[in-house]
Inverse folding.
């Protein structure tokens, strides 16, 4: 158990809908990272937040957004969902903005039908 | 941009034998970190081992060790005394000096046979 929690574990929704994925980092960790794992794109970095502020952005679609709250949990919002958004979404956390060890949560499996 | 390449999509090994996974990367940075992550069927991403580029000594964690060749930009993982629980996808990953994201290779599926 990495200490990073993600909810829900599984999510099934229809095209065009909007969903929110939630992540709680390990106790004391200030950075949260979101990754997408899909069959065709592999594991891709989406976005990083550090202590409430966006720190780095990767291949995140405009339909996707994220935020980190004062209690340091983070949410990833996915809107206007398409079939291709079906993937495993991981959250990871690290102690600070430049920590080189990231600990991954169990992931949220999103299926768009 | 950094790229990470794992050229072996799948490998199999007999229990108690040794298997070596290859990884090459491309970067213009001189200071960086390399990692191997394991993803078993449960899909959990588990950090196996990490290597700092400025350290010449190869990292070791129990049965897992790396061969880091900085000039060749190569970072292979050796699993010794393979166990059935080692069956998983293994991902090589790179983190640059900014330390704010991991760039992953495509993964190598390892099957340990009894």
């Amino acid at each position: 158990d990495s200490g990073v929690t993600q909810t829900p574990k599984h999510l099934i929704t229809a095209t065009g809908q909007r969903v929110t994925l939630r992540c709680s980092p390990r106790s004391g960790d200030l950075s949260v990272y979101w990754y997408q794992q899909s069959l065709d794109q592999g594991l891709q970095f989406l976005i990083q937040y550090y202590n409430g502020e966006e720190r780095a952005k990767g291949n995140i679609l405009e339909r996707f957004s994220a935020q980190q709250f004062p209690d340091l949990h983070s949410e990833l919002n996915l809107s206007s969902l398409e079939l291709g958004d079906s993937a495993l979404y991981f959250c990871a956390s690290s102690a600070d903005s430049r920590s080189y060890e990231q600990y991954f949560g169990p992931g949220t499996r999103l299926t768009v039908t | 941009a950094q790229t990470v390449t794992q050229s072996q999509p799948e490998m199999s090994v007999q229990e108690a034998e040794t298997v070596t996974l290859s990884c090459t990367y491309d970067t213009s940075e001189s200071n960086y970190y390399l990692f191997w992550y394991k993803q078993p069927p449960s899909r959990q991403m588990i950090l196996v081992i990490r290597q700092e580029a400025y350290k010449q000594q190869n990292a070791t964690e129990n049965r897992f060790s790396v061969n880091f060749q900085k000039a060749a930009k190569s970072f292979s993982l050796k699993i010794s005394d393979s166990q059935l629980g080692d069956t998983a996808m293994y991902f090589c990953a790179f983190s640059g000096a900014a330390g704010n994201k991991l760039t992953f290779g495509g993964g190598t599926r390892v099957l340990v046979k009894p």
